[in-house]
Amino acid sequence: MDRPVELGVELLAHLEHEELSVADAIDRIETITTDPALQREILDTAVARGVIDREDGVVRPQSRAYVRFEEQVVRKEGEFTCRRCGAGLSTGHFVEFDAGELGPFGSSCIRKVTGRD
């Protein structure tokens, strides 16, 4: 992941929630980086670009651009570890953003990361 800030901003732009807590937003961002300074930079950059509104511990995505599962989520067979929960996977789900590929995730974690669940 060469461009984690860009990838994080793009992830926040595609969340399927009207609002979520900053803690839940960080849960998603942790799939990109666990570095607190980089997480803060992702949030700050998303606010500065108008991708999210952040107020009183709540994040509100400003875009209605959702991950298109049929087009943007790719399944790959192999031996993977889920970036969210750490489970071993034989099928990994990857989200293809303009800024890069995010994954692998298991079938339930991909839904959680994108805000479908």
Give the topology, please.
Blueprint: H1 4-13, E1 20-21, H2 22-29, H3 36-48, E2 52-55, E3 58-61, H4 69-72, E4 73-81, E5 88-97, E6 100-105, H5 107-114
Antiparallel strand pairs: 1-3, 2-3, 4-5, 5-6
Task: Output the keywords.
117 residues, single chain, three-stranded antiparallel sheet
How would you explain this protein's 3D organization?
The chain starts with a helix and ends with a helix. A 3-stranded antiparallel beta sheet has the order 1-3-2. Strands 4-5-6 form a 3-stranded antiparallel beta sheet. Helices cover 37% and strands 30% of the residues. The chain has 117 residues and is α+β, with helices and mostly antiparallel strands. The longest helix is centred in the middle third of the chain and has 13 residues, at 36-48. The protein has 2 domains: 4-61; 69-114, no CATH class. It has helices at residues 4-13, 22-29, 36-48, 69-72, 107-114, and strands at 20-21, 52-55, 58-61, 73-81, 88-97, 100-105.
